[in-house]
Amino acid sequence: MHYWLMKSEPGDYSVDDLESDGVTHWDGVRNYQARNLMRDEMHVGDHVLFYHSNAKPPSVVGIAEVAREAYPDHTQFDPKDPHFDPKSDPDEPRWIMVDIRFVEKLPRPVGLPELKTYPELSGMVLLNRPRLSVQPVTEAEFEFIVARASDPAPE
DNA sequence: GCCAACGTTGGC
DNA sequence: GCCAACGTTGGC
């Protein structure tokens, strides 16, 4: 069992969108490191923290789970799609995606400024490695954040 | 809207 | 294979 954090801009695709869709394919990842993590490490049933980037404040807002393991991301072959990749060979697709299933919204969003205040999270990839849209979290980090979401919001 | 971090591209 | 130019992410 692995744990993950996946970023999405809420204007693009929010946790509410995921809730109404139930399951969605996580297309558009065009970063090799993120791709390799999804392709090699992500398994059905893995738990995912759903994170709103470019929000005020950026926040962990929900929980999802991996519903399907890596398969080709069809948007790479669509010239009209913003994620079109003319160099990707259909016989050997360069980019893959996974399916994510909605589990729950957190009782309250846990914002980035708050996350930074917890020594327990000082090693989080989120706080140390900018610009990685799919990233691993430890089980302890996952459980800690979910527990904080049941606490009252700090001042 | 700005810009720092950093990944990718392509000329050489 | 180096590295400058360029593009993107994402916090602020």
Write a structural description.
There is one protein chain. 26% of the residues are buried. The chain has helices spanning 15-21, 32-41, 112-115, 125-128, 139-148, and strands at residues 3-8, 23-25, 47-52, 59-72, 96-111, 134-137. It has one domain (3-148): Roll (ph1033 like fold), CATH 3.10.590. The protein is elongated and about 50 Å long. Helices cover 23% and strands 32% of the residues. It is an alpha+beta fold. β3 (47-52) and β4 (59-72) form a beta hairpin. The chain binds a DNA duplex (12 and 12 nucleotides) through loops.
Largest sheet geometry: 6 strands, mixed
Distance between the termini: 34 Å
The name CATH uses for the topology is ph1033 like fold
Question: Architecture in CATH?
Answer: Roll
* Structural domain tally: 1
Helical content stands at: 10-25%
Order of helices and strands: EHEHEEEHHEH
Trace the largest sheet across and list its strands: 2-5-4-3-1-6
Q: What value does the average pLDDT take?
A: 94
Q: How would you name the CATH homologous superfamily?
A: ph1033 like domains
So what's the CATH class?
Alpha Beta
**Using DSSP, what is the number of strands?**
6
Helix segment count? Answer: 5
How would you sum up the global shape?
A: elongated
Supply the helix-strand structural class: alpha+beta
Which percent band covers the strand fraction?
Answer: 25-35%
Main attributes of the structure:
155 residues; alpha+beta; ph1033 like fold; 6-stranded mixed β-sheet; 6 strands; DNA-binding
